[in-house]
């Protein structure tokens, strides 16, 4: 019992560490490659950027204020566990954006000859006068960061909350959901006094790249595999795999040529667990016959939840 509690605590700490790292990536992408070029990204950060360009109101303050209002919906629909990580994500993102901004301003002040300082944002441009390259770099880093956050059951708030709520009930990817919401935010940048077609198109490019990488990171992290294991020492292998908290199903089989009865182990696991399962098999029975295949979707305890609602009986 103590080992299970210790493992659960370790998993929670592991989640928070990776959520923090993902939020740091997102903050770097936003502050270092989006804001210095007056570009607009998706999400609440994009809405904050539009307000920032129009009034100078800090992006992190907009994120914090709006997220407080959205957290009520997260508590009711997604539960307290998600909400706790969302609260952590909201405050941590605001802190990391502020910290990254201070670092960038400091670098711009101490190395004025190495950077071009955008007078509108007061932030130095790492890639001088190259908005397209910064758009690609910033969107890529943002997508990887927010993907890490979602992959570890976290949220940075804003449109992430809306996407997570829809994703809980509908079979729609997080990237697709966020894209629909973010198009409105990016389009609103055209209404700014200095709005232009160039800024609008850069914003759409940022949106597409961010969400493509978001889906890529999440899908890669949630890939599952299926093992069919044929071995005379199936019982030892099954017990060893079961000790890793991964279920095993034993099927009755018969060799068609030999007509001999034999047991077949069926194991569904995360792709990242494959190496450990192969090591278990190799240590117990090096001569075992093993088939591994990719699985499109695995739903149930320990995997993803089924998001299709059952039809009501008439």
Would you give an account of this structure?
This protein has 314 residues and is an alpha+beta fold. The chain has two domains: 220 residues, no CATH class; 72 residues, Alpha-Beta Plaits. The chain has nine helices and six strands. It has a four-stranded antiparallel sheet, with no helix packed on it. Strands 1-2 form a two-stranded antiparallel sheet. Strand 1 and strand 2 form a beta hairpin. Helix 1 packs antiparallel against helix 4, helix 3 packs across helix 5 and helix 4 packs parallel to helix 7. The protein is elongated, with a radius of gyration of 24 Å. The chain starts with a helix and ends in a 19-residue tail after the last strand.
Question: Which keywords apply here?
Answer:
disordered C terminus; alpha+beta; 314 residues; two-stranded antiparallel ribbon; four-stranded antiparallel sheet; Alpha-Beta Plaits
Summarize this structure briefly.
This protein has helices at 2-33, 43-55, 59-110, 131-151, 159-169, 174-187, 197-221, 234-242, 274-284, and strands at 116-117, 124-125, 224-230, 249-254, 261-270, 289-295. The chain is α+β, with helices and mostly antiparallel strands.
